[in-house]
Structure formats: structure tokens, C-alpha cells
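Example 9 (inverse folding). The structure is encoded as follows.
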């Protein structure tokens, strides 16, 4: 994993931008449940009323409220309403109030709001013609509050007319002999002191109901509610659109970073492979190098996208959700603690089961690619010796080994989803069960429960995202190690950083072997032993021995594809072990390979012939002339525009010879 993070560190600036955007996205995502709660609790249940302090109030209601307040608070409340909106006695709250002044007024008016609403509720439910104030009085607050909070099917919701009736009764009561504000305050203090906390929370919500009742009396209740819903809903929509835009930007940047990482890894891997000698190629095998350059790099790319989009986002979202839940007063935080513990145990168990299999999977992919390559490149011998059935069984075994491992890891991932779903549904059930009890006790509202469920699901989803990526990380880690192994493997033959030119006094065209011995890596004996000879220009030098005695190995020493284990090889007077002279040697040694397909690299014959001279930096006109001359020399000029796939084996061999002739080596 450290290798993957090193790749991401190359693009640290973009990664920082992505992290900043993820915090913005998480802020939007975590804010939406609060807005949902506000819409349900305040916008729907409270009619869009956020404060026990009305924005507009009739003079009669204001007078009734001030009768239930101390002299000081009553004066402050009267002064808070600056002017009349209309001729019907509706006052508007001043807009120049400070936050502290507004908070003090809300605290002062809460209890009068409760008392006035309870009186209106009793007026609505009292028998016709009965004086409710005389029946109840201000001293019997606990009984009144119990009656007002009873959810009885016969309970009648108070109306604006009931409020007007109560305000008139309070105005009449203020004219009675012996009425004083101090006596009212003492009665209220005694009544509220005897109430428990749960009942007190229920009563506080009734202060909003009084404001709603006042707005109904003014005929603006619907307008107030719709203004609130439009405002909060608009903010919610704005946050959603911002979250969408940020999510798109994160996806775009993450994709660019992962694509750039894939490009760089392919470039570095290819640069390493192109400089490998025969020993390194044989050590890795062609099939493994192809897998590492394609499949392994794709695994790293995919995980880099996931790291930036999901792994970095999940902790932000999960921690934010936990903080929101812990800061709430629902009393259900223990459900989150239980969830997190169960999720961690589930993820650890699945990782311990699946991780070893991911390390095996890449080797099985290598094996399948190797078998496929061997069968496809050797399809003619397979058919010639009627070995189709054997090769089918060999391929089927490699295929089934990979399939069984993939099935095991897929089963582990699939098993995760039902458990996650069980945890999510079980969590929702616990929240609804205990949240319903809290709502029944008056300590939680519907919107709060909805927000709590949403935050809980966000926390669970963050763990789900981490679990999904954690399943992919081991395989990507193995892939990154395999890529890094190729990149960091040094070649036994190095191309020169500053190549030397041919020496002016060199022995032109002479190839000399001086006591050359060579042993392949891992072999117990030499393939060549003490070979010495000199091949001069103008002469034909043939190496004639039986099959398997080292002719091809000997030929690969001419242009330093292989370097001697003992002795030395001099070409044009230059030692092939001198790395600074390798390029000059190879540019003046032409080699036709035994397999003509090795030099078929293009779609047109004449482009294939031009492959070697183009490497020498020859002008295009000269290349064209050389290619035409070489094709005429081998009798293939009329095939110059043919595709190599249309040629026979002998024709391909002649094309390979033409390529060397066009190079015109020494």
C-alpha cells in the first residue's frame, strides 16, 4: 500500500484539492438531515414558526401576554414592537433588535405563551357557557397542563376565536380588585415548579402553538408556513446542487490523477523492460510482464480512484455523522456505538478470510496468461501433433484455478452485503422502537428521529464503503509490488547515457571472440566454453555444429544481446562489455533472427523494412531509397504495400533480410 500512496504523493496538489472538495461535500451531505428535521418539525408540525416571539401580534394578544410577565419584561416586550402594520391593531416586531435582546425576549415570553395557549385549549374544550378562568384559575397549572397534553379523541384544537375569548377574559381579570402582576408571577412559579422535566418539554412546544394560533387569528398562518418551507427547502436544494457539483469535480479530478498514475507506471515499466537483457526477460517471463503492464496497472488505477473518492470520503462522512449524533439530545447514541463495534468485527473477519486469496490471484492470472500465450503462439505444432485435447485440459486447469479463487473472494464480498443490510435494517428498527418511546415521552420529535436515522445510515454507509475498498486493497497492493519489482530490477546490460562513436582507427568489420565462455543464469554448466575465432570482412564465417550446441547463444554475443561470462568479444575493435560503446556496436551489426515474425512490427511491408534505418536517424529520402533497394535485392519489391499477415513464412524471412540490408551495417 505504501507504493500506491507514493504514486498519489506525486500529485499531492490535486489530492489536496480533492480532500478540500470532499470536506465541502461531506458538509453538504451532513447538513441535509438537519434541514429535513427542520422541515418536518418546524415547517410542518409548528407551521413554520421558529420562535415563541411572534413577528407580528395583535394588541389584544400582546396585552394578555404582558399581564403574565413581570413589569420589566412586559415593558421590554411592549417596546419590542415598533409600529402598527394596519388599522386593525397588528404590531410588527422591530428589526433592529440585537441577538441578545431577542433571546431575552424569547425566554421571557415562553411561559406566557404556554399559559395563554393552555387557556385557549381549555376554552375550546369547556362546556358551552362555562367560564374557564373561573374553573381553572392560574394556580392549578399542573392539572391544566395534564389536560392539555392528553391525546384524547374528544379533545378539540383551539381556534382563533378561543384565543380572542381568552384574551378578553384576561383583560377582564386585570380589572378585578386585588389583581397584581406579582401575585400572577407567584402563582406561575408555584405551578411550574411542580412539573417534571418531561412535562415541561411538552409545554415548551405549546409556546410555538400559541404563535401559530395568533397567526391564524391574523389570517397569515399559511403564508408564514409557506415562506418557511420555501426558504428552508431552497437552502436544501442549494446544498444538494452544490454537493452534486462538488461530487462531479471530485470524480473528474480523481479520474485524471488515476489516469496520470497509470500513464506514468506504464511509461516507467516499459522503459525498464525495453532496457532488460535476455536474463531479465527470462526471469519475469513475457506473459508476466504483459500482465504487470496491463492488468496490474489497471488494478492500481482503479484503487487510486477509490482511495480519492471513497476511502478519503468515508472517514469524513462517518466521523461527521458520529459527531452529529453524539451532540444530539435523543439519548440513542448507544445504538451508534453498537453499530460501529459490529461493523468493525464484520470487516476484520472478512479481511482475514479474503486477503490471502488476493495474493494468490495475481499469480494465477500470470499462469493463465502464460498458458494462453504458449498455446496461441504454438498453435501450429499443437495441431501438427494432435495435442488439442491436452492443451484444452491444460488451459482449463489454469482457468478453473483462477475461477475458484475469484469465486472465493467474490463470495466474501457478496456475503458482506446481506450482513450490512441486516445491520442497517436492525439499526433502523432499534431507532424507531426507542425513538417512538422517546416521542411518546415528549423528548424527541418526528423530524429528529428522521435525522437520527439518516445520520446512522450515513455512518453505516461509510463503513460499507471502507469495507468494499478494503477488499480491493490487498489485490492492488500485490499489483503495486509486482509493478515496482519490474521498475526497480536493474538490467545486466545498460544502454549508455553518452554513447561513443566508432573509433576512427577501428578494425573495420572484424568480429573477434577471445576465449569466450557463457552460462545462463541458474544453469549448472556453460552453454559456451572457451570459444575463440575471428570473422573478417569479405569472408564467410559459418558456425556448424549439431542442434543445441549454442549457435544462437553465440550469435547473440555479436550485438551484445548477451555478454560473455568469461573472455571478451570485440566488434569493430570495441569490447561489447564497454557500455558506452553498446549503441555504436548495435548500429553497425545487422542480425536476421531465426523466427521471421520477430521483425514484423508494422502493418505494411515497406514500413517494417524501414524499422532499422529509421533508428539511425537517416533522412527520409535516403530511407525510401534504401528500402526500395533492399526489397528489390530480396525479390519482394512488388509486395511493399502488403500487410505482413498476407505473406508466407519464406516471404517473411526475406522481409527480415531486407530490413537488415536497408540498415547497411558494417
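The amino acid assigned to each position is listed next.
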Amino acid at each position: 500500500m505504501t507504493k500506491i500512496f507514493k504514486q498519489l504523493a506525486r500529485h499531492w496538489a490535486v489530492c489536496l484539492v480533492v480532500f478540500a472538495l470532499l470536506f465541502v461535500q461531506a458538509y453538504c451531505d451532513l447538513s441535509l438531515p438537519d434541514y429535513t428535521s427542520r422541515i418536518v418539525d418546524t415547517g410542518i408540525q409548528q407551521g413554520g414558526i421558529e420562535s415563541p416571539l411572534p413577528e407580528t401580534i395583535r394588541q389584544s394578544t400582546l396585552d394578555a401576554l404582558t399581564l403574565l410577565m413581570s413589569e420589566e419584561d412586559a415593558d421590554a416586550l411592549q417596546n419590542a414592537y415598533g409600529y402598527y402594520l394596519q388599522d386593525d391593531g397588528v404590531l410588527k416586531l422591530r428589526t433592529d433588535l440585537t441577538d441578545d435582546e431577542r433571546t431575552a425576549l424569547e425566554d421571557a415570553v415562553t411561559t406566557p405563551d404556554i399559559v395563554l395557549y393552555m387557556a385557549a385549549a381549555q376554552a375550546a374544550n369547556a362546556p358551552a357557557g362555562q367560564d374557564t378562568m373561573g374553573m381553572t384559575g392560574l394556580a392549578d397549572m399542573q392539572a391544566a397542563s395534564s389536560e392539555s397534553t392528553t391525546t384524547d379523541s374528544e379533545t378539540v384544537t383551539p381556534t382563533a376565536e378561543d384565543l380572542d375569548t381568552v384574551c378578553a377574559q384576561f383583560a377582564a381579570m386585570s380589572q378585578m380588585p386585588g389583581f397584581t402582576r406579582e401575585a400572577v408571577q407567584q402563582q406561575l412559579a408555584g405551578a411550574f415548579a411542580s412539573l417534571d422535566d418531561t412535562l415541561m418539554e411538552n409545554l415548551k412546544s405549546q409556546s410555538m402553538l400559541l404563535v401559530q394560533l395568533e397567526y391564524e387569528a391574523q389570517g397569515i398562518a399559511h403564508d408564514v408556513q409557506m415562506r418557511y418551507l420555501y426558504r428552508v427547502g431552497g437552502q436544501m436544494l442549494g446544498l444538494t446542487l452544490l454537493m452534486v457539483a462538488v461530487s462531479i469535480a471530485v470524480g473528474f479530478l480523481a479520474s485524471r490523477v488515476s489516469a496520470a498514475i497509470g500513464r506514468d507506471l506504464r511509461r516507467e515499466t516499459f522503459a525498464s523492460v525495453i532496457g532488460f537483457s535476455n536474463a531479465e526477460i527470462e526471469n519475469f517471463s513475457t506473459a508476466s510482464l504483459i500482465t504487470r503492464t496491463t492488468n496490474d496497472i489497471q488494478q492500481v488505477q482503479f484503487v487510486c480512484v477509490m482511495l480519492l473518492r471513497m476511502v478519503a470520503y468515508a472517514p469524513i462522512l462517518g466521523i461527521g455523522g458520529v459527531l452529529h449524533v453524539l451532540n444530539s439530545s435523543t439519548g440513542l447514541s448507544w445504538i451508534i456505538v453498537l453499530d460501529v463495534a459490529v461493523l468493525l468485527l464484520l470487516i476484520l473477519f472478512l479481511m482475514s478470510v479474503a486477503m490471502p486469496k488476493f495474493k494468490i490471484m495475481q499469480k494465477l492470472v500470470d499462469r493463465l496468461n502464460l498458458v494462453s500465450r504458449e498455446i496461441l503462439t504454438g498453435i501450429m505444432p499443437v495441431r501438427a501433433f494432435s495435442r488439442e485435447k491436452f492443451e484444452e485440459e491444460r488451459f482449463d486447469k489454469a482457468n478453473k484455478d483462477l475461477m475458484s479463487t475469484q469465486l472465493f473472494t467474490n463470495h466474501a464480498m457478496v456475503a458482506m452485503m446481506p450482513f450490512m443490510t441486516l445491520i442497517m435494517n436492525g439499526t433502523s428498527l432499534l431507532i424507531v422502537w426507542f425513538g417512538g418511546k422517546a416521542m411518546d415521552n415528549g423528548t424527541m420529535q418526528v423530524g429528529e428521529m428522521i435525522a437520527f436515522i439518516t445520520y446512522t445510515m450515513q455512518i453505516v454507509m461509510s463503513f460499507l464503503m471502507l469495507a468494499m475498498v478494503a477488499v480491493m486493497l490487498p489485490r492492488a497492493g500485490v499489483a503495486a509490488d509486482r509493478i515496482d519489482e519490474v521498475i526497480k530490477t536493474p538490467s545486466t546490460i545498460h544502454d549508455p547515457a553518452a554513447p561513443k562513436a566508432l573509433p576512427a582507427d577501428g578494425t573495420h568489420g572484424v568480429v573477434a571472440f577471445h576465449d569466450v565462455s557463457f552460462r545462463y543464469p541458474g544453469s549448472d554448466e556453460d552453454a559456451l566454453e572457451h570459444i575463440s575465432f575471428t570473422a573478417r570482412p569479405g569472408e564467410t564465417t559459418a558456425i556448424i555444429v549439431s542442434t543445441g550446441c549454442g549457435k544462437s547463444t553465440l550469435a547473440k554475443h555479436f550485438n551484445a544481446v548477451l555478454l560473455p561470462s568469461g573472455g571478451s568479444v570485440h566488434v569493430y575493435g570495441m569490447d561489447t562489455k564497454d557500455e558506452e560503446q553498446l549503441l555504436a556496436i548495435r548500429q553497425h551489426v545487422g542480425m536476421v533472427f531465426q523466427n521471421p515474425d520477430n521483425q514484423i512490427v508494422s502493418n505494411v511491408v515497406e514500413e517494417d523494412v524501414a524499422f532499422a534505418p529509421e533508428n539511425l536517424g537517416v533522412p527520409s529520402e535516403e530511407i525510401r531509397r534504401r528500402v526500395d533497394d533492399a526489397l528489390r535485392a530480396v525479390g519482394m519489391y512488388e509486395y511493399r504495400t502488403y500487410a505482413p499477415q498476407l505473406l508466407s513464412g519464406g516471404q517473411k524471412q526475406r522481409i527480415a533480410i531486407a530490413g537488415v540490408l536497408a540498415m547497411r551495417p558494417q
